[in-house]
Design goal:
The complex is a heterodimer of chains A (402) and B (271). Chain A is of the alpha/beta class. Helix content of chain A is 43%, strand content 18%. In chain A, a hairpin with a 1-residue loop joins strand 11 and strand 12. In chain A, helix 3 packs across helix 13, helix 9 crosses helix 10 and helix 13 packs across helix 14. In chain B, helix 2 runs parallel beside helix 12, helix 4 runs parallel beside helix 6 and helix 6 runs parallel beside helix 7. In chain B, 48% of the residues lie in helices and 14% in strands. In chain B, 59% of the residues are buried. Chain B has 271 residues and is α/β, with parallel strands linked by helices. In chain B, helix 10 links the parallel strand 8 and strand 9. Chain B has a single domain, classed as TIM Barrel (Alpha-Beta Barrel), CATH 3.20.20.70. Classes of the chains: A alpha/beta (402), B alpha/beta (271). At the A-B interface, strand 2, helix 1, helix 8 and strand 11 of A face helix 3, helix 5 and strand 6 of B.
């Protein structure tokens, strides 16, 4: 892949396209609001004051920069590549999601919108949005599928404690996809005073661009930190991919470095049949869902398929359009691991490093556990540890992980 | 052989000649069964609907409120897909005089194939389509495929649309242009939004197409209010609600009565 030149300055184009993917497929009522959002974002990203304010909050409120930690005992246990963990789990609220929420929260204030709506799967984006709403004094409603509310109960309570309303979503599969439908319905009804704080690199342009830019800091820091620690660039980057925000955040600034291989890890769930997993590149094909053209798990008739993953944050039938483009281009390799492999990875990291990971990054770790031993000791692997496992203790427990 | 005048254009011309206003009726195909859809189309036609919008059920109807969401779920459970709807359509068409357009989300059409969809729809006797999540910016391949089969393409204008957007959407539209009366999802409302009049007035600057206004219209009074300013009123959720309440008990008769009651808002009696 050494000859690949990723068009990082060009993607997305003016129509929000990453190659053939992306775009803007929303009902007419939302077209003007997304155009306004695009203009507001373009103005904000070039405004020194906005950038300084965001930088200040990322540093003093969220806790950036996050460390890059050399996981020596895990490395030794696997007996292959040197494994470094990008510790996004140490951020305030326990996951990378806060990067984007602070950015969009400040942007909403600039746009004069006093109300935030958000969707959440695992609850991490909901908690981060509720946190930013409290910090900035904004009203906040978070939509969450009933199934996710049951399996991520501690996060439901956190959001409520932070002063947000959590609206249960009972339609469809009662997971992340249905929560996004409901958040969009709220937004389309209340566009005059409401900003939709979308939590991943999904949805209509400019969301995939904007959310990527707010998470790029992950890769920018990791690049600096690994050069400091090892004196050279890593050989591999690993990150889990639900919508794809933590992975694009880590990958983006390494894309021009042809020597750095990148692996996105999807949820393989409990089987290969449609409905049993959330591995979009294994079982999906291009289509339109929730505002964007990308790889989607769907039936032959174009109906969106149900998905399964033990990880609520990866349990979604579509993938960010830039990932679809990177897949098509061959710049990033996408693979998937099963529920069971993710659980085992979480157990192993807990035992070897004293870090309990969230189930989402446990998927990335599981892929490293499978491949690390086959790599040479000279190889360097950076894994994005995108969130901590507190929210998943109930799942670990009922799965008998000990 | 010349191409016959499209049914939608003819219907609006007839209305104009009688100085009458139109009633557009929406319901979801396959709700509660595909067999029932043929019966309901004929009943709604008899009751005097001037244009029928036949919904193609989708798994993720993000522009729709609870009533049409439930209809989609019932329809999907009954096995209604775009392919099956098109297969049955020729038989349904025979019993209906009113023009019928399909009202769909984009993905089912995209997966069917744009050209293949347009050909199959034209062959089946469909008059056009409205794709609720397809903005004019992304619509060019679709519009080309539809035009090649002489099918009408209806786009949407909303209170949040700028003049520039209204002009563009109207340019891509044929048959009629659909104005959304207020922001939000589909569903019945007690009162019509104050935004209707200014929106209709703004849109008249950009198009000579008939203007239909929908979203939130559920009784003859509202139908009349809309028809006072626009060329047609669209009733969707209220009809779907009537199907949900009555179809399984009384068949299409109650739905037919409901549409006749709405039609009274136009001051016309169905023939």
């Amino acid at each position: 892949m050494a000859t690949v030149s990723h068009q990082t300055d060009v993607w997305p184009d003016a129509r929000g396209r990453f190659g053939e993917f992306g775009g803007r497929y929303v009902p007419e009522t939302l077209m003007h609001p997304v155009e306004q959002l695009e203009r507001a974002y373009e103005a904000a990203r070039h405004d020194v004051k906005f950038r300084e304010e965001l930088h200040h909050l990322l540093k003093d409120f969220a806790g950036r920069p996050t460390p890059l930690f050399h996981a020596r005992r895990l490395t030794e246990h696997l007996g292959g590549a040197q494994i470094f963990l990008k510790r996004e789990d140490l951020l305030h609220t326990g996951a990378h999601k806060i990067n984007n929420c602070l950015g969009q929260g400040l942007l909403a204030l600039r746009m004069g919108k006093a109300r935030l709506v958000a969707e959440t799967g695992a609850g991490q984006h909901g908690v981060a949005t509720a946190t930013v709403a409290a910090l900035l004094g904004m009203e906040c409603v978070v939509y969450m599928g009933e199934e996710d509310m049951a399996r991520q109960a501690p996060n439901v309570y956190r959001m409520r404690l932070l002063g947000s309303r959590v609206e249960p979503v009972a339609s469809g599969s009662r997971t992340l996809k249905d929560a996004i439908n409901e958040a969009m319905r709220d937004w389309v009804t209340n566009v005059h005073n409401t900003h939709y704080l979308l939590g991943s690199v999904l949805g209509p342009h400019p969301y995939p661009l904007m959310v990527r830019e707010f998470h790029r800091v992950i890769g920018q820091e990791a690049r600096r930190q690994i050069l400091e620690a090892a004196g050279r660039l890593p050989d591999y980057l690993f990150a889990c991919v639900g919508g794809g925000s933590n992975s694009i955040g880590l990958f983006y600034d390494f894309i021009p470095d042809a020597s750095v291989k990148m692996v996105g890890v999807e949820a393989g769930g409990r089987g290969a049949n449609l409905g049993e997993h959330a591995a979009r590149f294994a079982g999906g094909k291009p289509g339109v869902l929730q505002g964007t053209y990308t790889y989607v798990l769907q039936t032959e008739d174009g109906l969106i398929a149900n998905t399964h993953s033990i990880s609520a944050g990866l349990d979604y039938p579509a993938i960010g359009p830039e990932h679809a483009a990177l897949y098509r281009q061959g710049r990033v390799e996408y693979t998937h691991v099963s529920d069971a492999e993710a659980l085992e990875a979480a157990r192993l990291l807990s035992r070897t490093e004293g870090i309990i990971p969230a189930l989402e990054p446990a998927h990335a770790l599981a892929a490293v556990i499978a491949r690390g031993p086959k790599m040479s000791r000279e190889n360097i692997v950076v894994v994005n540890l995108s969130g901590r496992g507190d929210k998943d203790l109930g799942i670990f427990q009922s799965a008998g992980v000990l | 052989m010349t191409v016959p005048t499209p049914r939608i254009e003819s219907r609006f011309r007839e209305l104009r000649e009688r100085r009458a206003k139109g009633l557009v009726v929406y319901f979801t195909a396959g709700d509660p069964t595909l067999d029932g859809t043929g019966e309901l189309l004929a009943a709604v036609d008899r009751a005097g609907a001037d244009v029928i919008e036949l919904g193609v059920p989708f798994s993720d109807p993000l522009a729709d409120g609870p009533v049409i969401q439930r209809a989609s779920e019932r329809a999907l459970r009954s096995g209604a897909t775009l392919r099956r709807i098109l297969e049955r359509f020729p038989r349904w068409r025979e019993a209906v005089r009113a023009p019928i357009i399909l009202f769909s989300y984009y993905n089912p059409i995209l997966q069917f194939g744009l050209d293949r969809f347009a050909r199959a729809a034209a062959q089946a006797g469909v008059d056009g389509a409205l794709v609720v999540d397809l903005s004019p910016e992304e619509a060019e391949p679709y519009v080309q495929a539809m035009r090649a089969q002489n099918l009408d393409t209806v786009f949407l204008g909303s209170p949040t649309s700028t003049d520039e957007r209204l002009e563009r959407a109207a340019k891509f539209s044929s048959g009629f242009f659909y104005l959304i009366s207020r922001t939000g999802v589909t569903g019945e409302r007690q009162e019509l939004a104050a935004s209707v009049n200014p929106l209709v007035e703004r849109t008249r600057h950009f198009t000579t197409l008939p203007l239909a206004v929908g979203f939130g219209i559920s009784n003859p009074q509202q139908v009349r209010e809309v028809q006072a300013v626009a060329d047609a009123a669209v009733v969707g959720s209220a009809v779907v609600h009537a199907i949900e309440e009555h179809y399984l008990q009384t068949g299409a008769a109650a739905v037919e009565r409901f549409v006749r009651w709405l039609k009274e808002g136009t001051g016309e009696r169905p023939a």
